[in-house]
Amino acid sequence: LNKPEWYLTQVLMWIGNHSKFLDDKIQPILEKAGSSVNAGLEFSRALVMLILEKLAADIPCLLYDDTLFCHLVDEVLLFERELYSVHGYLSSFPSCMHILSEESCFQRWLTVEKKFALQKMDSMLSSEAAWISQYKDITDVDEMKVPDCAETFMTLLLVITDRYKNLPTASRKLQFLGLQKELIDDFRIRLTQVMKEETRASLGFRYCAILNAVNYIATVLADWADNV
């Protein structure tokens, strides 16, 4: 259960190792018979169906172990990325994302994603470098004077988007978007709390850093507004 990468990698190897044989030897036979079937894609589809069976059996066994469940999700997302980008798998075919979208699994994924995101926010705001810009010594890069915590937070949101963007239904994507909105509101509250401690020094270093953080986040969210 703690090594899903073993069978996921094995399937990717099988697909890669057989592609030349399927293209050179099997595909011409299918074409000669007047079939529109793509041998390579059908081979991939059959192997992915085995993975779906395996996942359906494994997920109930690790649903409440955060570490194992997170590892499985991470490995499945890496597998899916390679399957589509390297091997040309079709989005209309069955995929692992359909298993991750099933109710019990999906709700668990959302819960764990939120838990780890909040932990990340705790660590980024308690860091000594939280209010310092990574690029403070490079003036042409650092026009917005973005503190490290704001940049790390927006990267966190971007990573979450990258993880859920291939979900098969819009309703599931919207649930993840709801999580991102919760995280933005949580971050806003945390900034407000820090700002209240700094009101006596409103031209102080940290107070200005908070204003820069808010400006940066608002600007990036406006840029993302075109991303459906």
From TrEMBL:
Biological processes per GO annotation: endoplasmic reticulum to Golgi vesicle-mediated transport; regulation of ER to Golgi vesicle-mediated transport; retrograde vesicle-mediated transport, Golgi to endoplasmic reticulum
Pfam families, A to Z: RINT1_TIP1
GO cellular component annotations of the record: Dsl1/NZR complex
InterPro entries tied to this protein: RINT1_Tip20
Superkingdom assignment: Eukaryota
PANTHER family: RAD50-INTERACTING PROTEIN 1, RAD50-INTERACTING PROTEIN 1 RINT-1
Name by which UniProt lists this protein: RINT1 protein
